[in-house]
Amino acid sequence: MQSMTIDMTYPVSEGGDGILATIDRVCKEACEAAKSGYQFLILSDRSVSPERLVYTLSSNPKNNHYFWYIVLSWIGDIRVMPYGGGKRCVEADARSRVPVSALLCLGATHHFLIEARQRMKVALLLETGEARILRGAGIGVKPVSGDDLRERSRVVVLIERDFNRHALPRVGVLAFLEGGGGVLLLRLLARERVPVPGPMNQGLVGAEVHHMCVLIGYGCDAICPYLVLETMFQLRKEGVIDRYLKDFDVFGNYAAAMERGIAKVMAKMGISTMLSYKGAQIFEAVGLGPEIIDKCFKNSASRLGGITFRHLAEETFDRHRIAFDSKECDSLILRNPGFYHWRNGGEQHVNDPLSIARLQEASKSNSPETYRQYVEDAIKSIRACTLRGQLEFIPSEKPIDLSEVEPASEIVKRFATGAMSFGSISYEAHTSLAIAMNRVGGKSNTGEGGRQNNHIAPLKNEKNKELMKFCESPDRYLYHDPEYNLRSAIKQVASGRFGVTATYLANSDEIQIKMAQGAKPGEGGELPGYKAKAEHITISGHDGGTGASSWTGIKGAGLPWELGIAETHQVLTLNDLRSRIVLQVDGQIRTGFDVLIGGMLGADEFGFSTAPLIVLGCTMMRKCHLNTCPVGIATQDPILRRKFQGKPEHVINYLFLLAEEVRGYMACLGVRKFQDLIGRTDWLRVRKDVSGKSSFLDFSAVLQNASSLSPDVNIVAASVPQDFQLDSRLDSVLIEKAKDVLEKKAKKVDIEMEVENSQRTFAATLSYQIALKSLFGRKFGEIGLPDHSINIKLKGSSGQSFCAFLARGIHVTLEGDANDYVGKGLSGGEVVIFPPKDMGEDFKSEENVIAGNVCLYGATSGKAFFRGVVAERFCVRNSGAFAVVEGVGDHGCEYMTGGRVVILGPTGRNFAAGMSGGIAYVYDPHGTFKKKCNTVMVELLPLLFDEDIQLVYRLLIEFYEKTDSQVAKRILDQWPHPTKKFIKVFPFEYQRAMRQVQGRALVYQGSRSLSRQGSSISQTDFLFPPGSPTVKSGHEVHDTAPIKDIEDVLRDGHIERQCEFDRGFVKYRREIGVYRPAETRMKDWEEIYNFEHVRRGLRVQAARCMDCGVPFCQSAHGCPLGNIIPRWNDFVFHGEWKEALHQLLQTNNFPEFTGRVCPAPCEGACVLGINEPAVTIKNIECAIIDHAFEQGWIIPQPPKIRTGKKVAVIGSGPAGLAAAHQLNKVGHLVTVFERNDNIGGLLEYGIPTMKLSRKVVQRRVDLMAEEGIIFRTNANIGKDIPTKEIYDGYDAMVLCLGATWPRDLPLPGRNLNGIYFAMDFLETWQKTQMGTNIDFEKYSAKGKKVMVIGGGDTGCDCIATSLRMGAEEIKTLEILPKPPPHRGSDNPWPQWPKVFKVDYGHDEVKVKFGRDPRLYNTMTKEFLDDGNGNVRGVRTVKVEWRKDDRGRWEMKEVEGSEAVHETDMVLLAMGFLGPEKDIIDQLSLQLDPRSNINTLDGQYSTSIPRVFAAGDCRRGQSLVVWAIMEGRQAAREIDLFLMGDSSLPGPGGVIQILHPQG
Ligand SMILES: Cc1cc2nc3c(=O)[nH]c(=O)nc-3n(C[C@H](O)[C@H](O)[C@H](O)COP(=O)(O)OP(=O)(O)OC[C@H]3O[C@@H](n4cnc5c(N)ncnc54)[C@H](O)[C@@H]3O)c2cc1C
Ligand code: SF4
Ligand code: SF4
């Protein structure tokens, strides 16, 4: 066998054009190789390589350049030029190579070879590094970040791909292309070529299944994802992967995960063999232009057209740059760009924190104004993420008045909630939706099952005593109180296994059969396609699905609903079928805009799922599958369900606000009735301002107006009924014969009939009638009829679905045989089938098939006896029926969840796959069963327990009596001897559930497990695996001691750890004692924190974090830096401090500052804070960085190259320091000018040492100096040094001047002695502390009565400082009212909680003087003179705050409330008005209306070229964390300005190459 490797890379120097030439070359080389007799063609991207570094050595002989010349030249990837002046630059030459996407090359080659008739001669193998690593099916490693790898291996590879913005294909070609874009980027800093992978901070747990699928789907024969494998090898080598795993395990697990994932995708698409899947091209592209499709994906649909090779190449180059950028700085950290979970600064999601918060606020308050703000924000995300967002309405020339538009109450009738079952959401959430939809006249959807589990007691709410009666049984359908109607109009059948009973189905207005669902096609919906004569079709978009959706189903699966609804409407109209069908659309419909677009594309109705759940309190935590939902929605846990705060009224508010939005649009469009806009695509057009890649989309197919093609076709939905010809069915006769029983005129009826195989679903309509009676007459309920009420004897061969959903009380005996689906959904009835009695003596029923495939699928109760063998998939998803059969085909009892099955003969293979409940008893006289059973989820045991033996015996007797089975007779004749030949198939999951029910106190009975051959494992052993309870003598089983704290849990291994981590917030309280006791701390000037205590509890505190899908702690309301809080928490919990540090440093330059002084808006926005104390964040942040310093991990990291650009930073506060730090990282030479004698700004001379030690500030300043930043103190720019001098001497300057201009209180007596600005007081004292020779005496508070005016944080610092100085009395005056103890309705989560807080200074005053120093509602009127020009007191008056008619706050003095407060010293702490003006005036900078330096929104460049501004001088008085954020982003903008692009991280630490245009 001959093989040839073909290179898929090309020189960087060829630029964007190289992509096409390379694809052509690869195709040609492949074709020639095939013709020359090669059989294996390996397309490889291994030759990817960086741009070369070119060193020019200094001509200074001291540098020993000959030595370096030799060393550097020896390192092959670096070119060295002697005597060049000591510079370093990057050169793109022929040895720098970028890859073409493996998929592009593969697809093109595959088609090229087909056309050249060479494809059959060769196998196409791929050697590619494009495999993306992310959380998946588990190779069992812990997440890592890349710095460790860099340090140890000297090699870092990374890259993450931007892969979904326009990637919306059915199985996602574009996702792959954009994502991969041919980018496998290795960074080889030395000769050692050891690649390490990309976004591992998502958890290295599996490569993306989708990539493999799409490669196979476009013809690949084998894939070597070498980057993944080498990564795993490397991680193992470095001990990052769980040390208990061996390389072999890791590779094996990875391969198994891939295999499983690929098989699942194939199954979803209905393809069972790899051969059929390979090259099948079952993909649709969204956003790929014809040139790409024609060359690489011939004949694949790409309805919207889209981008070209050039775009793909550009993106490839950007990624190449990030990976190989000579300015490595932050790009060496592996990052999570937020594809799956929202992340600050990352990929945009339709549900971002801001819109979630606004939606909740709007629906709770029913406020049109808040709703308008919500829509404003939501539309931005819709535009960024969806197809519909690219469209707009064409304004009508004849708008109408709003009053002429049909009322909102009519529009809401078109609304439905999505299919969300009781399993997926709590009883409270489920019923709230049902009640809301019934009240508005819309429809709620049960989701499959929709049953209350009996063992879950419903919680109390308003109406609950009465409701409880109903919700505990399916009779809740009968509860029709109009205000609290729990009935869901739509009953869904998804997999047909969760309680799909006759009553369930009968009690519906619509039965919805799920065939595929956008976000996870087929998952839970792998039902055969039905020819159903549907009356209603729901088009479900690709972006639906719950947080429980598997990661492989979230991306690259499904299509946008815009395509689906438009095509469905067009096709139905063209075939004149539209009038018979109601079309519903769903998938992230959240605004009236979505509804209008859906309607114009052809939808009649609209499904809402995520939005109403958000309204009920969902925060998109995306942990639905873990049963840990903190707001009581996606959980069955009674403790968590108590946290549910949603109300049906909120949902109703939302639907009506949305309907009003729809009405507004309708008025503008001049439409009176919604029906009149359905299908009016001619009122839509592509937005004029669409830019970027979206502008390449062609919407003409979507916007084709179907009615203009078929003008006279009726498109009014459901105006023509479907004809189901029900009267002609055999069931009509049956119902007639059973009429007396149905009408309760008779107790029993015996019916005899003949049946033919053309008659399908025999007795299903009769069962429906019984269920219906239960519905309206409450006569029978789910219980059905008494046993043997309707007895039917049949002869013949039945058609498909014989006795489907057979209701209790109906007994059917068939002498003959049956087709597929016998007893599907059996609902309490009994089916007996035996062969004709006249078959003769020799006929052996056990050797003949009596019924077809899939019998008893999804049966819920009842009995079935088959004398004979049934075909494949017997009892699949049975949840409660009892059955006896003489033999079954393959896949018996698959996914069974309940019931009992006795099998008296052979089984096919794969028995019990996915079986989680119920028990099967298999008679196995020849010992062959074990090999055919899939034992992943089941244990095979002998028949030992009495209850099992008795059950089997009773069923055998009954079976024999009803069918005359000779097999049963033979067994019974020898009873009990044959019990030894029975195997009990007992699912582990079922065992676990039973253990729970039995309270873990079972009687020990020794027995032997059959599936663990050779060992003598007792039945108790399998019930109680090692480590849980202990088995004591006396046969009693007890639990071990309960877990007291997390340290105990940690000893119990990973699984328990994870479990505790997931539920940490339920188990652990928030630590509140973070300060040293006030009594002791007020006596010194040391930091107030109790570090030791805080650290001791940190892991417990970290365990409270829920790793939210939408981490509000990082949102706009939360951490301004977008700190990746859940990641550190996870690492801290697992004791991975270094990894935690890497996460922290991605976003925050100085966590040692914020960890001490930040007021932690993150905690105010934490999801946990909705109904309990938020996660501790700030203390964990502080502990991570302090630990890192202690460990010596924080060392100076000077940049390896210098750009030669000089930047001046004016001001050394946190903004200036952050800007300098970032700019220095990318190699600019930074000088920081500070007018004070020390560096640090307010960190140094504002915030007191008790909050932030000067040593901590100095430590950082020293590090930065060692990294090459130049600090110049006592340099007052604009005074000591002319601003122009700096401006002219530097390539750019950034002003970080702070907002140091204090707000004054110009009242009578203001110029008396003893009245100071807070900053003068604090700064002077801090300088004195630092040893500066300064006259401090007048500022001393010792022995004085201190009055602080202003109740904010600066005021608190003044209090704490004067207290430590020895003040005699301290008071604070605050003009505003005292904040409430809890959030007000105008201050909802996740806003910063404006509640009463006791800060450290207040607490200390209380301890010392016995009362809180703050006086609220107090206005200062005058400073009083002691007669010597010193202040002696302040005169005040009380004020009241009221809202005026327009809702604005109004202040009023309270008559007679004047008072005089004695004081010797007044400190004015009322905030700041902006920066000082010297520099501003000298540069003639523009100011904003608040007198801060003016820049464009979200930008940092000022009105003067080359001058930038950041921090308090730009945004006004703010916080340290904001200053750092501004400094970082200003640095990025400056880098872009100086270099033409920037790879510095953007908001949230996400790296994306920034180009000048944006
Ligand atoms: C008393 C007090 C306590 C605070 N406590 C907290 C807290 O606990 N937590 C928190 O998050 N925030 C706190 N803040 C706010 C926080 O300190 C500021 O928001 C933050 O320091 C602003 O950073 P900055 O870099 O923009 O400006 P600053 O820190 O104000 O730094 C500006 C620097 O520029 C220098 N400068 C100005 N003009 C010139 C010039 N012409 N030439 C040379 N140098 C110049 C100044 O001397 C100063 O050092 C507090 C503020 C005060 C006043
Ligand atoms: S910097 Fe402040 S807001 Fe951000 S995580 Fe730390 S404490 Fe929270
Ligand atoms: S800190 Fe709070 S908001 Fe952030 S991820 Fe953890 S629980 Fe969620």
TrEMBL record:
GO terms for biological process: L-glutamate biosynthetic process. Residues 1084-1192 form the Dihydroprymidine dehydrogenase domain. Residues 531-671 form the Glutamate synthase domain. Residues 2-53, 207-288 form the Glutamate synthase central-N domain. Pathway: Energy metabolism; nitrogen metabolism; Nitrogen metabolism; Amino-acid biosynthesis; L-glutamate biosynthesis via GLT pathway; L-glutamate from 2-oxoglutarate and L-glutamine (NAD(+) route): step 1/1. The keyword S-adenosyl-L-methionine does not apply. The keyword Ribonucleoprotein does not apply. Belongs to the glutamate synthase family. It is an enzyme of class 1 (oxidoreductase). It holds the Pfam family Glu_syn_central. This is glutamate synthase (NADH). It comes from the Eukaryota. Keywords: 3Fe-4S, Amino-acid biosynthesis, FAD, Flavoprotein, FMN, Glutamate biosynthesis, Glutamine amidotransferase, Iron, Iron-sulfur, Metal-binding, Oxidoreductase. Residues 754-942 form the Glutamate synthase alpha subunit C-terminal domain. One of its GO terms (molecular function) is 3 iron, 4 sulfur cluster binding. Its EC number is 1.4.1.14. Residues 1205-1527 form the FAD/NAD(P)-binding domain. SUPFAM superfamilies: Alpha subunit of glutamate synthase, C-terminal domain, alpha-helical ferredoxin, FMN-linked oxidoreductases, Nucleotide-binding domain. Its cofactor is [3Fe-4S] cluster; FMN; FAD. It catalyses: 2 L-glutamate + NAD(+) = L-glutamine + 2-oxoglutarate + NADH + H(+).
